[in-house]
Amino acid sequence: MPRLLSIFIAVLSVLAGACSPDRELAGLDARIAGEPAIFDDGASVKDGYPVPVMAASAESVVWGTPAVYERVADGAEGPYLLDTGDRLRIFVYGQPNLSRLYIVNQEGKISVPLIGNVTARGKTTNELQNIIRSRLGTEYVKDPQVTVDIQQNRPFFILGEVKNAGQYPYVSGMSVETAVAIAGGYTERASERSFRVKRRLNGFVQDLEVPADFPLKPSDTVYVFERFF
How does DSSP classify residue 118? Predict the structure, then answer.
């Protein structure tokens, strides 16, 4: 009986040490500092969790980084950048042969009389305007007055459970919900909870699961799911 009592007291001492406030604080400090907390008995705590002394040779568990989708504030995405499919109306004062409608081709360029191909991809209308003015003024037209306007944005695409799937001209500031409205609204089988958007960005394709108020960009492809009940 005395032997059992001694064992019981020893176990209580160990448990009291493991759950002591000092260990809790040490574990918290370790989580903040990102370093193991070492105790007098050789045990340690890393990231707030106990590390067995006997497993010193074991590799640490590496957790994957969770995907975080940050909502961009309205107007924070920057100006509209030109790309393939944009229809541009370019006017050069006093030069009717140069003033016409231009379409940005697959290479992201437009072909302007006298100066040839001009890269429009990735440019704003003001930047393209300045490039054309500079190239015309170098050789062909004295002090040219050039304006560049977008007659029609390049299209977006919408597929799935909408009444009129297809491609439509992009509308500045539009959302997924706007795209659905442009495509005639939902079908009777459509899910209105979540949507998939395929987006090309710097040569890569992103597949995004998004809500109805998600802001779209030109060339996005929206897919409306079918509901399951």
Answer: E
Q: In which residue are the tokens 């059992």 written?
A: 4
pTM for the full predicted model? 0.58
- Kindly give, in sequence order, each residue whose CB lies less than 8 Å from that of residue 190, ignoring residues fewer than 6 positions away: 160, 161, 162, 224, 225, 226, 227
Count the Cβ atoms, other than its own, within 10 Å of residue 179.
Answer: 25
Separation between Cα atoms, residue 215 and residue 26, nearest integer Å: 46
Whether the CB-CB separation of 153 and 104 falls below 8 Å is answered with no
% helix, strand, coil for the chain, step of 5? 25, 30, 45
Q: Which domains does the chain have, with CATH numbers?
A: 2-54 (no CATH), 87-152 (3.30.1950.10), 155-226 (3.10.560.10)
Query: Is the four-CA dihedral 74, 78, 80, 82 of positive or negative sign?
Result: negative
- Residue 120 burial by Cβ neighbours in a 10 Å radius (0-12, 13-18, 19+): buried
Amino acid letter, 210: V
Q: Please check whether residue 120 is in contact with residue 128, taking contact to mean a CB–CB distance below 8 angstroms.
A: yes
56-109 pLDDT, tens digit per residue, is 333 332 323 333 344 443 434 678 889 999 999 999 999 998 999 999 999 999
| 11, containing H or E segment | helix 2-18
Strands 155-160 and 221-226, bridge-based pairing: parallel
